[in-house]
C-alpha cells in the first residue's frame, strides 16, 4: 500500500533498515538499487501512480544517517525508501515485513497483482499468496461446452498455473474443431487467494473470464501439490446473460489434447465418472 507516514509504516521502515544492515547489504548497494528503480519509474507509466518519486533525491550519506538513527528521513525520502522496498524491484533487497507477497512490480502483471492483493485484504489466517505454489502446474480442464446448442458435449482445455517475477499467472488454451467451426483461444491472467478459496482473472481477444476454485484434492497443505481443482468459471463476451459453468481440473504430466467429448460416450467410461458427477449435478 502507498506510504502515508503512519506510525506502523515508520516502525516497519526503521526495522527494515536494521534488517538490511544485518543481512550485510551495504548502504551503497541500497542507494544504487533505488536509483535504478527511480529510472524504471521515470521510463514507465508507473510514475503516474507514485507521486513523483522518480525525482526525489537520495544520497548514500543521507541514507546512512537514516539507518544509523542519526536523523529521520523527511516524508518524501521515507516514502521513496519504503515504496522501493515494497516494490520488490531488487530481489536481493527484500524485506518480508514490507513486501509481504514477494512480488517484483516491474515484472509482467506485478503492479496489478500487488494492487489487487492490497484491495482484497489477504491475511495469514486464510490461504496466503504463496500457497498458490501448491497449485502450480498443468491441468486438463473439463467443463460443459458453452457453444450454443452443444449441451451434450464436454470441453477439455489446457489450464496452467505458473510463477514469474513473484507473480502467479494462469492460462487456458483451447484449440479444436467443433461442428465445422475452428476454436483457437488462449486466455491469460492472474491467480489470487481469497479466504479459503482461490480465484483467477483472465482476458483474451475473445472474452473476459472469472474463475473460482473452492475445492482441492488433496486438501491444500503447504509443500504438497494439489492434483485436482474444482470450481466455476464465468465468461463474458458480447451481450449477456453470462452464466457460470462448473469445471474440474486434473493435474497432467503431459500436455493434454484439447477438444470436445460426447456426453454419452463419457458416461460409458469409468475414467470420467467422478468428473461427470461434479459437472452434471
Main-sheet strand order equals 1-2-3-4-5-6-7-8
Radius of gyration: 23 Å
Q: Which structural category do the helix and sheet elements fall into? A: alpha+beta
Query: Cα distance, first to last residue?
Result: 42 Å
- The counted number of beta strands is 9
| SSE arrangement, N to C | HHHHHEEEEEEEEEHH
Query: Which percent range fits the helix content?
Result: 25-40%
> What value does the average pLDDT take?
85
Biggest β-sheet: count, sense, barrel?
8 strands, antiparallel, barrel
Number of helical elements: 7
Q: What are the low-pLDDT stretches, counting only 5+ consecutive residues below 50?
A: none
Beta-strand residue percentage: 25-35%
Shape: elongated
Amino acid at each position: 500500500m502507498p506510504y502515508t507516514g503512519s506510525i506502523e509504516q515508520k516502525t516497519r521502515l526503521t526495522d527494515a533498515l536494521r534488517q538490511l544492515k544485518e543481512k550485510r547489504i551495504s548502504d551503497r548497494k541500497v542507494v544504487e538499487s533505488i536509483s535504478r528503480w527511480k529510472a524504471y519509474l521515470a521510463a514507465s507509466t508507473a510514475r503516474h501512480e507514485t507521486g513523483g518519486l522518480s525525482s526525489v533525491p537520495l544520497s548514500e550519506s543521507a541514507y546512512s544517517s537514516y539507518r544509523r538513527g542519526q536523523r529521520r528521513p523527511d516524508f518524501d525520502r521515507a516514502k521513496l525508501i519504503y515504496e522501493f522496498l515494497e516494490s520488490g524491484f531488487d530481489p536481493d533487497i527484500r524485506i518480508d515485513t514490507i513486501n509481504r507477497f514477494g512480488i517484483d512490480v516491474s515484472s509482467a502483471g506485478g503492479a496489478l497483482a500487488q494492487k489487487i492483493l492490497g484491495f482484497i485484504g489477504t491475511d495469514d489466517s486464510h490461504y496466503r499468496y504463496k500457497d498458490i505454489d501448491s497449485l502450480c502446474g498443468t491441468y486438463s480442464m473439463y467443463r460443459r461446452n458453452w457453444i450454443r446448442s452443444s449441451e451434450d458435449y464436454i470441453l477439455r482445455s489446457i489450464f496452467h498455473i505458473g510463477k514469474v517475477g513473484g507473480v502467479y499467472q494462469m492460462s487456458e488454451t483451447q484449440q479444436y474443431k467443433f461442428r465445422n467451426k475452428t476454436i483457437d483461444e488462449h486466455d491469460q491472467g492472474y491467480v489470487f487467494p481469497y479466504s479459503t478459496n482461490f480465484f483467477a482473472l483472465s482476458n483474451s481477444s475473445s472474452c473476459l473470464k472469472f474463475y473460482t476454485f473452492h475445492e482441492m484434492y488433496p486438501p491444500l497443505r503447504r509443500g504438497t501439490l494439489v492434483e485436482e481443482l474444482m470450481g466455476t468459471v464465468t465468461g463474458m463476451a458480447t451481450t449477456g446473460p453470462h452464466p457460470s459453468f462448473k469445471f474440474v481440473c486434473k493435474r497432467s504430466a503431459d500436455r493434454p489434447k484439447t477438444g470436445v467429448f460426447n456426453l454419452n460416450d463419457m458416461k460409458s467410461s469409468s475414467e470420467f465418472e467422478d468428473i461427470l458427477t461434479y459437472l452434471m449435478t
